[in-house]
Amino acid sequence: MALIHGITVFQDFGDVNSVGNVDPEGQFVISTRVRCGRSMEGYPFNPCLTEAQYKEMEEKVSSTLSGLEGELKGTFYPLTGMAKDVQQKLIDDHFLFKEGDRFLQAANACRFWPTGRGIYHNNDKTFLVWCNEEDHLRIISMQMGGDLGQVYRRLVNAATDIEKRIPFSHHDRLGFLTFCPTNLGTTIRASVHIKLPKLAADKKKLEEVAAKYSLQVRGTRGEHTEAEGGIYDISNKRRMGLTEYEAVKEMHDGILELIKIEKSL
Ligand code: ADP
Ligand code: MG
């Protein structure tokens, strides 16, 4: 439980130092990422935002983030005016959201695009914030390899810092409010990019085993994409009805099991 802007928020990041590396030998995991979503208090979701609100929010986000220091220090890059090749490289390298997502379009979430959209990141691109893609903010920590502990600690550090600077929409029962109901609650998605060639030889079997550990399998470029070069994005499926720590731990424990199975095949 935490007191944020005078509101009691049921948030529990747990003992961040108890989370370790899911693949210390670097045999299976290519990269690790943990993200959470946040909505800015006083603003509606995408379908109801005006163009002026988009601009105002981008300004608030970029000026607020410019106050971050240390490892979180970085630069805000608006999508408006970004060179196409720069944008595409950021997407291909898994740092930036894709453009023209048909599900977001169908949900009326892409009005006035690219106005008000942007990305903030530190120099190493280990800490990133998406502005006004699906959620007002997506706070992201990621790096190469399987050190989930380091990635999680950075995410917690960042979310805690940003929460002090921007008031976010939170509901006593639903948790943090997000545009997609599947993200309500903790909003945490902890994922690895992983190669499990033996287990994944049978995609159905991979899905089945993942489901047993409450994990979700996505393609290499995220939701609604296919695996490329045998690389899968595997993450915790549950975000509601458990704590932030438990969501990450669920992914941690499940990935260890998948690796155990892969080794036994
Ligand atoms: P989300 O909406 O949960 O943030 P998406 O499925 O929309 O995630 O994917 C967003 C981007 O994040 C994609 O480019 C995807 O490849 C990338 N991504 C997700 N997990 C990882 C990971 N563990 N390592 C590197 N990139 C990742
Ligand atoms: Mg997404």
Topology (elements, then pairings):
Blueprint: E1 2-4, E2 7-9, E3 29-38, H1 51-65, E4 74-78, H2 84-92, H3 102-106, E5 118-122, E6 127-131, E7 137-144, H4 148-165, E8 170-171, E9 175-176, E10 189-195, H5 203-212, E11 215-218, E12 231-236, H6 244-264
Antiparallel strand pairs: 1-2, 3-7, 3-10, 4-5, 5-6, 6-7, 8-9, 10-12, 11-12
Observed structural traits:
265 residues, 6 helices, globular, 23% strand, Creatine Kinase, Chain A, domain 2, binds magnesium ion, binds adenosine-5'-diphosphate, 29% helix, 12 strands, two-stranded antiparallel sheet, alpha+beta
Describe this structure in words.
The chain is of the alpha+beta class and 265 residues long. It has one domain: Glutamine synthetase/guanido kinase, catalytic domain (Creatine Kinase, Chain A, domain 2, 2-Layer Sandwich). Helices cover 29% and strands 23% of the residues. The longest helix has 21 residues, at 244-264. Bound molecules: adenosine-5'-diphosphate and magnesium ion. Residues 31-33, 35, 94, 138, 142, 189, 191-193, 218, 220-223, 233 line the site of adenosine-5'-diphosphate.
